[in-house]
Amino acid sequence: MTSSLKALLVDYMAVERMVVSSMLRNFHCEITLAKNGKEAVDMFLEGNEFDIVVCDKDMPIMTGPEAIVKIRAMGATDVKIVGVSADDNAMEAFMGAGADDFVPKPVRPEILQPMVQEVINKKKN
Amino acid sequence: MDYSNLRRQAASLKKGLFDQGHLDEQFRQVEDLQDEASPNFVEEVVVVFFKDSGRLISNLEQALEKYPRDFNRWDAYMQQLKGSCSSIGASRMKNECMSFRDNCGQRSVEGCMGSLQKLKREHAILRQKLESYFQVTLEAPPCQSWCHDRWIISINLLTDVCMFTMQLLRQVGPAGAATRPAM
Questions:
Q1: What fold characterizes domain A5-124?
Q2: Inter-chain contact A22–B89, Cβ cutoff 8 Å?
Q3: Cα distance from B129 to chain A (closest Cα, Å)?
Q4: Residue B53: inside a domain, yes or no?
Q5: Most Cβ neighbours (<10 Å): which of A104, B22, B45, B177?
Q6: Residues B39-72: pLDDT tens digits?
Q7: Cβ pair B78, B60 in contact under 8 A
Q8: How far is CA A48 from CA A7, A45, A74, in A?
């Protein structure tokens, strides 16, 4: 039986939400969408729990790194956070904010899949 | 209808998009996400892409007319557009986004204006070519589904023939059966 992970996908651009959520769905994830960092933080404030967060960097209202700092400060230290960006210099910003991993855009399923599998394995154990 | 000819036409249009550099490998990744559960996924993604990108280009055009010049804001818009372009494999558009961002970095208004015009041209060309491609694919369903439809039609026809034959035999009845020569 395949575990269903709860994934939060945070991206301002609709087309990117469509593509990455389709990949996550293929990895048997249950997906929640947010359009910016503030919406993502609000999800956590409302008591939602996620196994994995895939988060873009540059978004209006609140950026990805800003949101990650707040999410970690709330005590959500177990959730795996993966930063994604087409910006070559984004990795440092994400890791400095508390992300676990970084994936450059365009997101490739073969890069994302092992990260999802790692969370599945961790959850099983 | 000559589906094989239409499929060849669709393949040729798609090959042209790749050969001319309008699309890159990422588009194939998006195609791989299409399945029976979401049979029009690629077209839906492309529609959303042109809606998003059209809006961003429009926002950028308005921002370019404002004073003082806000290169950081212009760069932020283009960063978003670059991300979208890379997500669907819109390669030439992505390159123009990068060119624009370089001009932002150099604080060149003229350079930014020039890059934007090129970007708009690439946007229009890609849109037109993809619309043509999807129009043809709409008329020529993939062989798998077409073959499946042929099988369904054949099975339905066979069922109808069997039903008709059984009805005929019932009408002919035992008397009809008795007149048949013994085997």
A1: Rossmann fold (3.40.50)
A2: no
A3: 19
A4: yes
A5: B45
A6: 999 999 999 999 999 999 999 999 999 999 999 9
A7: yes
A8: 11, 7, 12
Query: What would the pLDDT profile of A55-103 be if each residue is shown by its tens digit?
Result: 999 999 999 999 999 999 999 999 999 999 988 789 999 999 999 999 9
Q: Is B29 on the interface with A (CB under 8 A)?
A: yes
- Band of pLDDT at residue B171, cut at 50, 70 and 90: confident
HEC letters along B112-170: HHHHHHHHHHHHHHHHHHHHHHHHHHHHCCCHHHHHHHHHHHHHHHHHHHHHHHHHHHH
- What is the domain-level CATH number for residue B120? 1.20.120.160
Tell whether B52 is within 8 A of chain A (Cβ): yes
The closest of B65, B60, B68 to B100, measured between CA atoms, is: B60
- The answer to whether A15 touches B87, Cβ cutoff 8 Å, is yes
Among the listed residues B159, B130, B109, the one whose alpha carbon sits nearest the alpha carbon of residue B53: B130
- Name the residue ranges covered by the structural domains of chain A: 5-124
ipTM, 2 dp: 0.88
DSSP state string for A81-115: EEEEES-TTHHHHHHHHT-SEEEESSPPHHHHHHH
CA–CA min distance B8, chain A (Å):
27
Percent of chain A clearing pLDDT 70 (strictly above): 98
**What's the full length of chain A, in residues?**
125
In a domain, B80, yes or no: yes
- Inform me whether the C-beta atom of residue B76 falls under 8 Å from chain A C-beta atoms: yes
